[in-house]
Amino acid sequence: MSQRPYSIAAFREAARTLAATGHRLYQQGWSPATSSNYSIRLNAGHAAITCSGKDKGLLEETDIMVVDLQGQPVGDGKPSAETLLHTQLYRRFDKVGAVLHTHSHASTVLTMHWPADHLTLEGYELLKALEGITTHDTRVTLPVFDNTQDIAELSARVDQAMDQGLANHAYLIRGHGLYTWAADMATCYRQLEALETLLAIELDRRRLG
């Protein structure tokens, strides 16, 4: 029998972490019902990712599967429809170890009701939760990509934006949600929590005029 291309122990740990992360995000209201997808790099060529159509509030370790970095499943299971947005990040950045995608109320409303192709966060103390930022006196611009069912095409657009120096910490998909990534899941969750909080603040500020 051929050897597996990834460590079983690493996969089991990733599955536990992803299931627990899904519960946390669901409880925050950032991953309602079967929305959202999450992943963890296993090695240079593989990642553990949530299976398609799983309720994130009930996510179990058996709801996690393995894909290669071309987005193809390794073994049984149907990966998230947006797998290529995860693998694009793993292919582009060797140091990315985790990716989180959420579907929050704030990110949906902001990107549907303000037509700009970017959203700027500036002057917030909470920006220091993002990797590499050490002062509130900074500006983070999140690109906003129009939504599409052609995930390969969207992945290519993200890659092109990164070629231009955009999307350094995260990006938004219009009416759809937020993507962020980091070296490990703890850092990725911290970034996502900060960004989701700031998006909610930005939504309130716009409502208040």
TrEMBL record:
GO terms for biological process: L-methionine salvage from methylthioadenosine; monosaccharide metabolic process. This is Methylthioribulose-1-phosphate dehydratase. Pathway: Amino-acid biosynthesis; L-methionine biosynthesis via salvage pathway; L-methionine from S-methyl-5-thio-alpha-D-ribose 1-phosphate: step 2/6. The gene is mtnB. Its cofactor is Zn(2+). Keywords: Amino-acid biosynthesis, Lyase, Metal-binding, Methionine biosynthesis, Zinc. Belongs to the aldolase class II family. MtnB subfamily. It comes from Alcanivorax dieselolei (strain DSM 16502 / CGMCC 1.3690 / MCCC 1A00001 / B-5). It catalyses: 5-(methylsulfanyl)-D-ribulose 1-phosphate = 5-methylsulfanyl-2,3-dioxopentyl phosphate + H2O. One of its GO terms (molecular function) is zinc ion binding. Binds 1 zinc ion per subunit. Catalyzes the dehydration of methylthioribulose-1-phosphate (MTRu-1-P) into 2,3-diketo-5-methylthiopentyl-1-phosphate (DK-MTP-1-P). The lineage of its organism: Bacteria, Pseudomonadati, Pseudomonadota, Gammaproteobacteria, Oceanospirillales. Its EC number is 4.2.1.109.
